[in-house]
Specification:
The protein is α/β, with parallel strands linked by helices. The chain has 16 helices and 13 strands. The strands form three sheets. A six-stranded mixed β-sheet has the order 4-5-13-10-11-12, with helices on both faces. Strands 8-7-6-9 form a four-stranded parallel β-sheet, with helices on both faces. A three-stranded antiparallel β-sheet has the order 2-1-3, with no helix packed on it. α6 links the parallel β6 and β7. α10 crosses α11. The structure holds pyridoxal-5'-phosphate and zinc ion. The site of pyridoxal-5'-phosphate has 19 residues, from α6 and α11.
Length: 403
């Protein structure tokens, strides 16, 4: 059951009945180092027998608890889920004999390539949209402020896909170097694209993020996959971890490890929360951008490292890798990622670029139409392989079709 949200940095709590609690109330422009995490209590409700993950695990979700706390019925929550996210289904989880034979391990793949918009990203955003739609039906939202995201990858595509379906305006803040073909895709989905040039008076940092934050300050809704910008993205994203847990149990197997590629860190946070600490969670970043592994070294020496955010999580100076979807210079959700690794006995791995390339070749040979980003979890397994026992059972997430 969900009681509310709690800031992992300052401890401020927000009751679950409060609408639009995207960020810690104490976060300011000068002190953005806060992040709301879901505050759970008691046992997880049993899954409902339904192929749609957001119905299946509905009663475990924060948006659902918000709606129920404000008087929506279970039937109304289910109906809203079908309306907003009707075409999501539990994604495949299967053993790959090609990868298992190649690595001399028992490799299982959570295959997100067929998910809405071709990756797992939409999972994170569904909860924000459901929260908004519930607020509308409760009369708590009478006009639709625009949704906003800074991304030029799978998250932007997922946001544009969901916003188009909901007929909700979306502003996408992108870097000037965004691929034109990708811009066309967003355009076809009706998103308003803003190419963000660095202005003379801009402070340091990504200009697309700066413009996104300005839009948010002007009232736009952070429709983003970065916990500090909207803690609710860490809600429905957990379905991926719950699915893996239940699918492993159904297959009669026990996983030894799960290795997850990390960009902003929301995916690993959600897989970790969904697995509940019972399976070792390792993370992986590319050698050309590894701020989480870098922070890990500093965190080890500290008591309650979240108090020292700006000192612990330092922006990576020159991100580069063929896995271009995980080049976030900061791991925004580092607190949840580190908690998940510590609780489960995992650690962060750094994959040499040669492993990023080889993992991609292996993933394609195994039949997964992923990008280098989408197969980077496997690169983590390659990097960690010398320390793994032969035959160990490992799961990776293949996500993000190559475009
Ligand atoms: C296919 C794919 N896998 C993994 C990630 C990493 O997710 P996160 O940024 O939540 O760490 C991304 C992020 O863009 C992605 O596109
Ligand atoms: Zn706070």
């Amino acid at each position: 059951m969900i009681a509310g949200m709690r800031c992992a940095v300052c401890g401020t709590t927000v009751d679950i009945a409060v609408p639009f609690a995207w960020r810690c109330p104490k976060a300011t422009a000068d002190d953005p180092y806060h992040v709301l995490h879901i505050l759970e209590g008691g046992d997880q409700p049993e899954p409902i027998d339904d192929p749609n993950p957001f119905v299946r695990y509905g009663p475990r979700l924060a948006w659902w608890a918000f709606a129920r706390a404000n008087g929506l019925t279970v039937a109304a929550c289910e109906a809203l889920t079908h309306e907003v996210a009707g075409d999501f289904a539990v994604t495949p989880f299967e053993r790959s004999s090609v990868l298992s034979d190649e690595l001399q391990l028992d490799v299982w793949v959570k295959d997100e390539t067929g998910n809405v918009a071709g990756s797992h990203k939409a999972r994170h955003l569904v909860g924000i949209l459901l929260h908004l739609r519930a607020a509308e039906s409760l009369g708590l939202l009478t006009e639709r402020p625009p949704l906003a995201i800074a991304s030029c990858g799978n998250a932007a595509l997922a946001a544009a896909t969901l916003a188009a379906r909901a007929d909700w305006p979306l502003d996408v803040y992108v870097p000037t170097w965004m691929d034109d073909g990708f811009g066309d895709l967003l355009d076809e989905l009706g998103a308003r694209i803003h190419r963000c040039v660095r202005r003379d008076d801009d402070p340091s940092g990504d200009p697309a993020m700066l413009r996104f934050r300005e839009a948010r300050s002007a009232g736009a809704i952070p429709f983003t996959v970065q916990g500090p910008e909207n803690g609710l993205c860490l809600d429905t994203g957990r379905t991926i971890g719950w699915e893996i847990t239940d699918q492993a149990a159904d297959a009669g197997i026990r996983l030894d490890r799960v290795t997850v590629q990390v960009g902003g860190g929301a995916l690993a946070a959600c897989v970790g929360a969904g697995l509940g600490g019972g399976v070792r969670l390792d993370t992986v970043q590319a050698e050309g951008c590894a701020p989480l592994a870098d922070a890990w070294e500093r965190v080890i020496a500290l008591d309650r490292p979240e108090r020292y955010w700006a000192k612990v999580m330092r922006p990576w100076p020159d991100p580069h890798s063929a896995a271009d979807g995980i080049l976030d210079d900061e791991t925004y959700d580092w607190i949840a990622d580190i908690q998940a690794m510590v609780e489960s006995g995992g650690e962060p791995f750094v994959a040499p670029e040669s492993d990023i390339v080889r993992a991609h070749e292996l993933a394609i040979a195994a039949g997964y139409p992923v990008s280098h980003t989408g197969s980077a979890g496997l690169a983590g397994v390659l990097a960690a392989r010398p320390g793994i026992r032969d035959g160990d059972r490992i799961a990776v997430v293949m996500s993000g079709v190559a475009r």
